[in-house]
Amino acid sequence: MKKKISLALALVLMFSLVLTACGGKATETPAPTQSTDAQASQAPALEGEIVIGSILDTSGGMAAAGLATVWGADYAVEQINANGGINGKKLKIIHYDVKGDPNEAINAYNRLVDQDGAVAVVGPGLSNIGIAVAPIAEEKKVPIVGHFMDERCTTNEQTGEKWNYMFLAEPSCNQQAEAIASYACEKLPIETVGILYDSSNAYSVTHAEPFAAYCEANGVKVVAKESFGKDAKDYKAQLSKIIAQNPDAIFVPAYVQQNALAYVQIRQLGYTGIVLGNNTYNTPFDTLVEGTPVENLYFLFNVDYSSEYTKFLGDAYRAEKNEEPFINSAFGYDAVTIIANGLKNADDVTNSETIAKAIETKTVDLMTSSGPITLNPDTHRPEGMGVYIAQWAADMSKVDLLEYYIAK
């Protein structure tokens, strides 16, 4: 990330191209609720406005991530409308809480399309839900832009072809798993590694497998590979088997609650070596491991909130929430930015098929809060996009970004 100034200028240019800058006041957006009822970011509805939606978890175990994503999406809509909307039309966003349930997500998506008239949707952060919704989107032909990292959310596992209406707004599980594996092999370095993963979670599985493959292909031996189920609360039996092999590092790619639990138990078992992680070691990891010193931990992070092209988003979040920005706020912002760019370039903003085609072909070096993004038209996943290698500060007050990294 050497050209931060030019990227900042690119962000300004992106807004002048994607949005019609004819002034106007930002609309006030209500705080997200934890209800399954729809919530619009703008009311009353205006004639000629463009409706988009979101299917996110704003209650349950992933509520913090879902609520932050809603905040980012609402903030993007607010900024777009303040700058004249899309070709003079205002955006309206409707949110549904899907509670981490694939059936709730399918029902919410159908309601957005069939009843609310949404022409595009901010998709779920959970891969299990993305996999379930993908064939429904193929049938309804309304694009979904989200952060469902499992490749099966964007590629039909049966045919090997892309899902035409599913778009990933960050590097995939494979790309991110290879990034942390490459960093560990090249920079730490390590010669042996153990892996603990959640076998019930598509996101976790599709981190563990490419991580192991990359390590083996680059001379690092996987000495143990253990798994746990969705409801497990004690991983010590599996971790004891891994630690008995004396690996240089242990890789744990799961959701933040499981990551924190595994980290605490790893240290309780006396292991002092390197722990490697995916991109869910951010807040609330710090509170979940309270009382356990966090050291020798390397994990992934997607956004640098101190950079010139992202600082505005972090500042807005801090001003409203009086806390450090949750990484998912950037995810919501970026998904809406990609949708807005598609709307701007679509032949017909009322035709979701043309919007999907514009997202597919016109998302090229588009500036987002995670950096410039180009979607590969053949996979609907980013190409040439890296992630940050991160560590928690010694006092757990913040996440320190070590470097921007793409797998070698």
Structure report:
The protein is of the alpha/beta class and 408 residues long. It has two domains: 4-170 and 305-375, Response regulator (Rossmann fold, 3-Layer(aba) Sandwich); 173-301 and 388-405, Rossmann fold, CATH 3.40.50.2300. It is built from twelve helices and 15 strands. The chain has helices at residues 4-18, 63-82, 102-114, 127-140, 173-187, 202-217, 236-244, 256-268, 285-288, 311-321, 327-345, 352-362, and strands at 39-40, 50-56, 91-97, 121-122, 144-146, 166-168, 192-198, 221-228, 249-252, 274-277, 297-301, 366-368, 371-373, 387-392, 399-405. It has a seven-stranded mixed sheet, sandwiched between helices. A six-stranded mixed sheet has the order 1-3-2-4-5-6, sandwiched between helices. The protein starts with a helix and ends with a strand. The model is unreliable at 1-37 and 39-46 (pLDDT under 50).
